[in-house]
Every structure is written in C-alpha cells, then in structure tokens.
Amino acid sequence: MRTESVAAESYQASFHTAFRPDLDRLMSDIPIPSTAAVLDVPCGNGFYTRRLAERLRAGGRLVAVDVSDECLERTRAELAGVDTPVEIIEADAYKLPFPDDTFDVVWSAQSLISLDPVRAAREMYRVVKPAGLVAILEVDEFHHVLLPWPAEVEAELQAAILAASVRKYGDGVKLSPTRRLRRVLRQCGFRSVRRDTYPAERAAPFDPPTTDFLAHHLRYLRSFAYPHLPAAVRPAFDRTTDPDSPDSLFRLPDADVVLINVVYFARGK
Ligand SMILES: C[S@@+](CC[C@H](N)C(=O)[O-])C[C@H]1O[C@@H](n2cnc3c(N)ncnc32)[C@H](O)[C@@H]1O
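# S-adenosylmethionine complex -> structure
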C-alpha cells in the first residue's frame, strides 16, 4: 500500500476512534428498517459497515464494496463477532455489480474525495430503489476541523490548503465535496435532497483518542499545507503544533476542537 494511503487510512481510523459516540449518534439518524437491503460504498475499514450491520435483523441484507483488497480485509476483521451476514465484495463504485433499484438504503461516507462525485452519485441513484434513500456523509475541508489557531495562522492556513488543493487536484473544490453535492444529487434525478450538519466537540484537556486524532490532523496539515504557508507565519504554526511548546494546541487549557460533519439525505427517483 502506498505511504499516502496508509497515512490517510490511519487518519480516518483515528477520526473514527476519537468521535465514535458522535458518529454513532449521526448513524442513528439514518432511517434503516431492520429488514432493509443496504449498500455501503465504499466501505474502507468497515467502521460504518459494522454500525449498519448492527441495525439489521433476519431478512435484512448488507453489502459492503470497495476496490481495495486491504480495505475489504479490514472490513472482514471489523465485522468479526457481528451476527448479521455481510456480503463483502470487490467492486468499482462507478460500475456496481447490482441491478437497478436493488437497495433500500445506500450509504457512502467520506469517499467523494477519492471518487468523481457525479459518476459515483449517478451509480448510487441507479441501484437505490425508487422509494429508497441515499445517505452521504461528507465534509468540507475548509470547515471540517476547527481549532483555536492564532488568527494570523488560521487565515493563512486556509489559503495554503487552497493552494495545496489546486496543486494536487487542479482546483479547490475537490476537498469540499459538500459545496456542490446538493446540485450533483439533484442533477442525478433525486427529487428531495436534505442536508443535516452534525458538530462534534472536545474540550481540553483532550482524552488520548482526541490527542491522537489531533496529532494525525496536524501531521496532515504539515505535509499538505505547510509548504504553502508564508515564511512569516511558519514559526507560529510550529509553536502551535509542537506538543512540547507552552503554546501548543495540545496543551492550551482553554482549547476546543470542533468537527463539522454533514449528511445528505437524497430520495425520490
Ligand atoms: C477515504 S476512504 C473512506 C472509506 C469509508 N467509507 C470510511 O468513511 O471510512 C475512501 C475509500 O474509497 C475506496 N475507493 C476509491 N476509489 C474507489 C472506486 N472507484 N470504487 C470503490 N471504492 C473506491 C478506497 O479504497 C477507500 O477505501
């Protein structure tokens, strides 16, 4: 596996661990009849697949797909001990191996950064039943993790993320799938698209899972955005992210971390 995708997976796992109760609450808002046919696309490490499996009873069907063998293996491990049988299948999100109108619920979490949102959403539209639901958990990188940065660092950091995004993806939109998701879903044909925002907050002193997530997030910013930060604000970024500095985000007695997650509920073919 490439170093970049290992880092991304480890970041994702730290997010799941630190915000598990909040993500559980968010998932409990997804209306899933216990005998529904449900698709998780793509399933990644199976964190959400497990939660979906726990919602189903006899008569329900759960399918988890991903293109990555490693992810499918992780999903199998994540589901150990869960009673509901789950079909774990290698499949391309753009060419799902299911007939039209197969699923009552299609769930997709934080994957549009890895996919073409239009092609992926069209395929979700194709496989969901006419009365079914497509639920997509996404974030906007510019608003996802809110931290009490020194203001001059925060302002420059946003510009640096934009510059890094343009360099890597050719535009600034790739990291903000939520900015056009409503339009994309409507263009696919969904008649109703609703969006709910789910904030999650942690206050200092941070517990070990939050500290671990923070460490992953700051490492990600250092490798992705730091090279685009003006030299004048780099010392302040360094101080704020150094766990040994008294100004560190890890040590500020009043620090809060706020995460903004968004779920789109699309219905009506
Ligand atoms: C950021 S992960 C998110 C996974 C999971 N939904 C979660 O929230 O933890 C994105 C996933 O998309 C998968 N992926 C990328 N391109 C894909 C494709 N064309 N078809 C299916 N899966 C794909 C990757 O292997 C990876 O597991």
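# post-check
The radius of gyration is 19 Å.
Residues 3-267 form a domain with the Rossmann fold fold (CATH 3.40.50.150).
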